[in-house]
Amino acid sequence: MIEAVGLTKRYGAKTAVYNLSFQVRPGAVTGFLGPNGSGKSTTMRMILGLDAPTAGRVTIGGHPFRRLPNAPRQVGALLDAKAVHGGRSARNHLLSLAQLSGIPARRVDEVLGVVGLQDVARRRSKGFSLGMGQRLGIAAALLGDPQVLLFDEPVNGLDPEGILWVRNLMKGLAAEGRTVFVSSHLMSEMALTADHLIVIGRGQLLADMSVRDFIAHHSAGFARVRTPVDAPEQREKLTAVLSGAGGHVLPEQDGALRVSGLPLPRISDLAHEADVRLWELSPHQASLEEAYMQMTQGAVDYRSTLDPRAGLRAAVPGPAGPGYAPQGGYVPQPGYAPQAHEGHAGHPGQTPGQAPPPGGFPPPGTAAPGPFPGPPQPNPYAAPQPVPAAVPPASAAPNGATPGPDLTKRDTEEAR
Q1: Is 178 part of any domain?
Q2: Positions of the region Disordered (predicted)?
Q3: Structural domain of residue 228, as residue ranges?
Q4: Which of the residues 11, 85, 137, 377 has the least number of beta carbons within 10 Å of its own beta carbon?
Q5: Between residues 353 and 200, which one has the greater pLDDT?
Q6: Which tens digits make up the pLDDT trace of 162-208?
Q7: DSSP states of 229-269 as a string?
């Protein structure tokens, strides 16, 4: 059994855990829940003697972890699946742990088979996927066949088959009378795995009760009521009757009614007295996730923004440089303003009264964008075009484009 009494941990001015007291009993899977930054990992590190508490104490079987004789044979833990030497194979990693703890080498092959890594036992762990790393970490926790096990996010990276395997493994270990303490953010998985819950927020205890009691205490059940679809007047009549009896009625998108504050027999009697036919009358209990969110909404430190699209409409640099828009059209850059030119206010090449094109004019020195990025390419099949005798100076080039070099008389004759 794990027991914490007045457990407190401070890091300078920050208090990670404050006056935390709880018990984790054998024979059940105990879920350890809390928002990010609530102190779950710090608490697990203090249980395993990795961090010393500022105040209070935590014991395993009545002894601090550091005073347990041959602790790896009594306590197994998975806190960080990446805590593996990447150059070692899975088997050598477990074999080194076994030799340090006096565990027979045959146990290494046994746990590799339990977690399903026997086929990759001689592969280096640095090439393992996230899910394979989780399985290797679980194998290390099971290596000493301990009576107390701690797991921090054990299903992270596992596929559905792996998640089901971990769930059955936890239940099987608890059924053998072991103490199983599991931290996870997956509420749906905790609802299927855990028997008891310990919930903390901002380092303090919020709940210590069974899953059933936690849902009942921190959520409200409701009744789902449905009347004939072709008789909307009966739905309105029933809504008025139930509201008059003290019930709280909310319409749902599929046409049903969500009724709270009245038991099912009372709803049935009121519908019968009002001569309203019912197509559905069923009880509904809130999920663990709903109850958890209701309880911890005031203890969440990190919240997302309301508009996740903010800042996504900026110009995308592309092959044509800043200002290039892949869908066509120039995206004006910050700080750009058209300069007056050729005796009137506007853009080079713009005639008085001419409206700017959609997206605005490109800045001086930038060629007008086309349907394809990059400079235009000459057509080798086009007929030769006559070369003008002289090229206008740079100041007279349309749209501010920079003209090519002047052609000499010799160049002109060669071109002809």
Answers
A1: yes
A2: 313-416
A3: 222-296
A4: 377
A5: 200
A6: 999 999 999 999 999 999 999 998 888 999 999 999 999 999 999 99
A7: TT-HHHHHHHHHHHHHTT-EEEE-TTS-EEEESS-HHHHHH
